[in-house]
Amino acid sequence: MKQILISGAIALIFSLFGTPLLIRLLARRGYGQIIRDDGPSSHHTKRGTPTMGGLVIIFAAVVGYVVAHVVTGHSMTISALLVFGLVFFLGALGFIDDWLKISRQKSLGLTGKQKLFGQALIASVFGYLGIHFRDGFGLTPISLYLSSVRESSFKLGAVAVIIWVVIMVLASSNGVNLTDGLDGLATGASVMTFLAFILIGVWEFGESCAIGATANCYQVRDPLDMAVLAASFAAACTGFLWWNASPAKIFMGDTGSLALGGALAGLATTLRVELLLLPLGGLFLIITMSVIIQTTYFKLSGGKRVFKMAPLQHHFELLGWGEVTIVLRFWIIAGLSVALGLGLFYAQWVAK
Fold first, then answer.
1. What is the pLDDT of residues 140-194, one digit of tens each?
2. What is the pLDDT of residues 232-242, one digit of tens each?
3. Which secondary structure element, helix H or strand E, spans residue 6, and what is its range?
4. Rounded Cα distance, 292 and 314, in Å
5. CA distances in angstroms from 151 to 94, 131, 144, 145, listed in the order given
6. CB contact at 8 A, 92 and 56
7. How far apart are CA 54 and CA 36, in angstroms?
């Protein structure tokens, strides 16, 4: 447990005090946010706010995780390294997208197809590597079996697992990306979800089959180290939220949103709670569904809309809700979603 505390403390310090340094650096170079002209008019005042803040989140999380292992003398696990690889390359993809927007001075970076292809390619490599690297118990970072609140007996096979991982990463990274439309909204929701993964990782470690082979034990390769990784991301996001809360002095950009979504998907797969990501990330799911509903209805109805604007948070802005009010109420939804997910996780254990 010492690793979790050290990882979180170091990541929080680096994020909290490193973010203002990044703000000054980005401001001097003029790397500011480009605002869509068709969005809410209140967003025009945010034009020029430094973006690509995801850089400090990723850096702080990595530093927190590494320092915790150096201090405690524990070895870093392949599961965590694979998730960090997923996060790094998705963050790099988001960085390219942010950079193109800034350099072109337009809210258009990579095309949708380019971004999806890049995400799918990165996720495929993660999924392929994840079904290798067996430990002494024959466990790999990613299981060949489908998992809901825990690993099931339904075997998918290597190809199906990789495809499933791609779907999860695409859904999660784009879900966080769509949610990142108001000051602090995606960051705060991510903190809650990462905290849930800390609890799940610690619980799975305590009830691991490697410790006690009971009928209800968990066969997960590196549950405690995944909790350490989740703690580093939760703390990194918390430090960043200090500067990202309304009125935001920096945005995470696609650099951060794609990376955080990848981290959530990576944690869900390595902890064998893949379908549990739906309730745990309930806010991301709701906002993503609002975009799907809006787009589908618009095409089928010949131009009519269900919402004034999608994603959903902008619909409420156009209804006259204040930004802080929307963020706080959406955080409540995120918290309730996390509580539901943890409740389902624990209920499954009790039912056994």
1. 999 999 998 888 888 988 999 999 999 999 999 999 999 998 999 999 999 999 9
2. 999 999 999 99
3. helix 2-29
4. 15
5. 31, 14, 9, 6
6. no
7. 20
